[in-house]
Amino acid sequence: MIGARAVGAAAGVAALELDAASIGPFLLSRPLVAGPLIGWLQGDAGTGAAIGVAFEAVSLAELPLGGRLELSASVAAGTAAWLACGGILPSEAAFLAGLAAGFAHARVEARLRRARGALARSAEESLRSGRSPWLGAKIASALTVQAAATFAVALAAIALAGAVGPALWSRLPELVRVGSRTAFIAAPWIGAGGLAATLMRRA
Amino acid sequence: MRGARLFARSLLLQAGFSDERRQGLGFAWAIDPALVEAYRGREDDLRDARLRQLSSFNTQPNAVGLVLGASAELEARAAAGDAAALRRAPALKAALGAALAGAADALFWGALRPLAAAVAVLAAFAVRLCGGRSPLLVGAAAGLAVFNVPALAARGLGLERGLRGADGAAAAAAALPIQRWIAAARLAAAAAIFLAAAAALGLHLAGASPTLAAASFAFGAGLSRPSYGPLRLVAAAGLVGAAASAATGWIP
Prior knowledge:
The complex is a heterodimer. Chain A has helices at about 5-20, 30-40, 45-60, 75-85, 90-115, 115-130, 135-170, 175-200. Chain A is mainly α. Chain A has one domain. In chain A, α2 runs parallel beside α4 and α4 (about 75-85) packs across α7 (about 135-170). The relative contact order of chain A is 0.15. The model of chain A has no long low-confidence stretch (mean pLDDT about 95). The termini of chain B are far apart. Chain B is built from 10 helices and no strands. By secondary structure, chain B is mainly alpha-helical. In chain B, α1 (about 1-10) crosses α6. Chain B is elongated, with a radius of gyration of 24 Å. At the A-B interface, α2, α3, α5, α6 and α7 of A face α2, α3, α5, α6 and α8 of B.
């Protein structure tokens, strides 16, 4: 059963994610903001910040050039923060669940981008027929669909991970859990080291 | 007031982003108030201008101000009967967008964004070290300021410069020492990352043993090539951790 707070968290993730590629950007969608914010909703901003740092470090190197999008960092961090800070999953398991949610959202986003070409074509048709193109309505429609899609992905990820995650995690071999824990602990440091080296090389 | 409306609308440049038109829909909506003003009472010309501006377009979002302003100024001149401005408008829009995209991507995504992240972490550590309140909030605010102050300034000043005259806009953009800014921001970001890492270790906030933290940092730095990507390296670290645990009973 999904609680009202989980629905609220998914809505929060959807709102923050709009900043990633629809509005601004103001960096409000970054994991360093989304992680602690969603964690705060669960009463544990500190763990949310740790989750946020991990996702920030591994996603900063990915530049959104020309619309390229491999991982939705905001969805990944928000989902993982909710799961970890609520005690639903340990942080390393929540990190993996967040990655899955982030990759899933990126695929949904890719489909939305292919479909949105129809909005501009519709505006052109209206203009050529002598009608108003209703550009503002099309922009609003694009934002609404984007937010709804993100909400659906985040809520589905939270619900699925919450329903099967704890049982699945406890059944995994100890080595898998140790490896996951190592990966989660090392993630911020690997990301930071890689980023620092890349920046110095290019400076 | 026209500039303010264009500025506000430019913040939704990417709202209708598509593979087909990229930011075309967002740009057309952002510039629309300028078109309505320029072609007031001339529905056919307004329609043609709107169709022109619905073409495919892409640039770094924080650099769109100059392109938006220059395009609006050219459309205003075209509406006043300047045929040369009408001919130049599409080519200038595309060329400015592409030219600014490369430098702005390197500056905002490649340098200021990681600098903002590092400053956020450093600020949070500093507040915590001083016993201050809300270190996470202060850190987030500091990081957001590092990115958004130059980003909004670039958008607003670029818009204002473009509205003043499209002809000089490209030259004005070319005269900016953007490459120096990029280099300085990259060095500052690298330094901030090293400082943040040292602070995390010093404050025992590493989330890992100092040995694991330092080894992971060096691992990431040593293998930082685009072909690897940080996530692949993280997965590799997980495998190494599992193997170490199997061999020696080590627990992270």
